[in-house]
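Hey,
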Amino acid sequence: MSLKLFKDVLVYQLTDDRFCAELDLAAFNHALGRKLSRMPAPTELGTFGFVPPCGDEELLVEAFGDHLLVKAQIWKRDLPGAVVKRELQAKVQKIERDEERKVYAKERNRLKEEIILNLLPRAFIKGKTVTALIGLDRIMIDTASAKVAEELLSLIREVLGRLPVRPLMLKHSPVATMTAILRTGDTYEDVFQLGDRFVLNGAHEEDSTISGNRVDVDDDEIRALLDKGRQVTRLGFNWLSDHDTVSVTVCDDLSLRGIAWGQELEDIALDQLGESEDLITCQRVTYRLVADELDRLVTEVIDLLGGLQHDSNSSERASIDFEASLEKALKNVTKITRVVQLPAEEAEGEDLI
């Protein structure tokens, strides 16, 4: 067994602390069933739908204490831009040579659309899953992509009708706080220790980025860079959990990257499984353990960085802005899953791209 769940995590704040507690599990499961995963048809760009998170076909949402687990499957046709560009250039050159005229932007765009429609049924289909833990006060999503996270949130909101959520907002700038931590080494050593990774950005956009991996960050040369105005945008920590030491990199957007769960947590999972080899049971045990650990990790990272901001006006503005972002994400999902019309003889084809 290897605990590779939630290695990269984006965290969002629930603005209604009653939301998760008031969710009816059966109704939620039924709602998710309206957006089941399926393979894209020959004339679809892709699909985005829910799958059983632990393999039990009847459960699209799993409950672990105060957490609910949902998983979505993303299927997308891989149509490389270089392929489209090559085909377009060939077609434009042929028209300009055969008809002795210039192809302008409007016609070029139309030709590009035709090429995409013709290539689409033959494009390879790539798939990936994204998982979300819905807790009492936050949602944690196992992806480093804000775009993918927001598409999942928008899909959940679509099936439920509402999802009161916004990005995390802290009292202090994460960049300023992590810069101060690296400068002083003050990490609340009973909870966190400095790790061996960092990224420093300059005060100006033209300044280069300086990064280090597997280095001693408690170094006078690094502090000298901070004295020259550089600021920390990523910083590695070792989190001293109740079970083990967990390495994690905290980023300026409050995402958590490269989470490495310790061996002791894996051993606990194996003890709880005993001799069971049932895949569904294995999934449930590991997700339950990781859910509890991840929730504690996020709570203690927030505390390390100074705590959540509770200013109602700022929170309301952030919620409004994020609502607009989710609307945009939903439009993107709709665009991905739109059906394009092809001539009947072109609706089938082998994977060529």
